[in-house]
Amino acid sequence: MNEFPLMETSKENIVLFHPHMPAKAAAMVTEVMGTRWIGQGPKVEKFEEEFSKRFGGGRTCISIGSGTDALHLAYILADLQPGDEVITPLFTCTATNIPFLYMGVKPVFADVQAHTLNIDPEDVRRKVTSKTRAIVCVHYGGLPCDMDELQAIADEHNLKIIEDAAHAVGASYKGRGVGEISDFTMFSFQAIKHITTGDGGMLVLKDEALADKARRVRWFGIDRRAKQGGIWQNDITEIGYKYQMTDIAAAMGLAALEEIDAVLDLRKALLAEYEKGLANCRDVTVIGAGYTDRVHAAWMCTVVVERREALQAKLREHNIESAQVHYRNDRYSIFGGRQSGHVNMDALEDKYLVLPLHTKMTVGDVQRVCATLREGW
Ligand SMILES: Cc1ncc(COP(=O)(O)O)c(C=O)c1O
């Protein structure tokens, strides 16, 4: 198997990912550094308010230190208990599924849809048992999952839905923004996401009644507001941890929100150019293209090809980086090893490839990548 080490950023090289640093981020972070609050303080609250207005449909938003922690907190708030089962994507970042292992919850993997690489609702339906408590879905690359179908299964069996929207800031489904749909939605602000706070995440809650608990569990189980109001001798009655975001990070997030529309426009234009440039390329299928009932957040462009390694080698020769990024999670021993019966994933696992897409790129860069693919490999 060929190895493709990371490429240097340079004029000739088209790297796979690159952080987007908003123009005002440095100044806004510097301002915070001169104040009393550099940890969790007023900027965190402001970021939550602004994010809620823009992407949360006014719901309560809880800023977290990472998307992974936000998922872990969502699973706690969904009251998942040891022995419970959760139906969750086989194909995702391990962050979606690792928190279950800490909680003694059993992740039950569902197969992908071949045309989107999102979770397949039909397989979800087949996997429901009397122990199932929740469904987790990942909007792979930024394309929303089939939320109506997933919600129908959840309603039938009284299950919670937790959306892992790490890739999906700015996506929408049938007119509703991702963040305004399910019981819990998690966003990631890790280095290369649409919005970055270095590392960070946001948990959007449908049930306002969970807001106080979410804030306590985020901070050891302590009511931080009461503490700051002068009540220091408080008891701790539920186990919390340290999931919070800092004001330094939130300042970056606020700077990013000011530019997010331009970021989304550019990313969407780049993805549209890939779809156009590869539309008639018979050896290449662009994943998740052609939907009119949902808006793609254009975080990644994934193609399905034959002889993937040969294509990666050819792209390398043309100074273009590519990678798998995510892998089927049953390749990792921690999840119990390889499973059978995931027919779509079995068929696609050697064929999917992620192409460069980020805000340092131009439409011309995408055309260069498409031209390289069209030459064949
Ligand atoms: C699908 C998915 N879920 C969860 C995460 C974890 O988010 P974070 O890196 O912010 O912890 C990531 C990656 O970053 C991801 O791609």
Description of the molecule:
- The protein is α/β, with parallel strands linked by helices and 377 residues long.
- It has two domains: 25-254, Aspartate Aminotransferase, domain 2, CATH 3.40.640.10; 260-374, Aspartate Aminotransferase, domain 1.
- The protein has twelve helices and 15 strands.
- The chain has helices at residues 25-33, 42-55, 67-77, 98-103, 121-127, 147-157, 211-217, 224-228, 247-278, 308-317, 343-348, 363-374, and strands spanning 60-64, 85-89, 91-92, 106-110, 132-138, 160-164, 172-173, 176-177, 184-188, 201-205, 285-286, 294-295, 301-304, 327-328, 352-355.
- The protein has a seven-stranded mixed sheet. Strands 8-7-12 form a three-stranded antiparallel sheet, with no helix packed on it. Strands 11-13-15 form a three-stranded antiparallel sheet, with helices on one face.
- α9 packs across α12 (363-374).
- The chain binds pyridoxal-5'-phosphate.
Layout of secondary structure:
Elements lengths: L24 H9 L8 H14 L4 E5 L2 H11 L7 E5 L1 E2 L5 H6 L2 E5 L10 H7 L4 E7 L8 H11 L2 E5 L7 E2 L2 E2 L6 E5 L12 E5 L5 H7 L6 H5 L18 H32 L6 E2 L7 E2 L5 E4 L3 H10 L9 E2 L14 H6 L3 E4 L7 H12 L3
Parallel strand pairs: 2-4, 2-5, 5-6, 6-9
Antiparallel strand pairs: 1-10, 3-14, 7-8, 7-12, 9-10, 11-13, 13-15
The structure holds pyridoxal-5'-phosphate.
Pyridoxal-5'-phosphate binds next to helix 3.
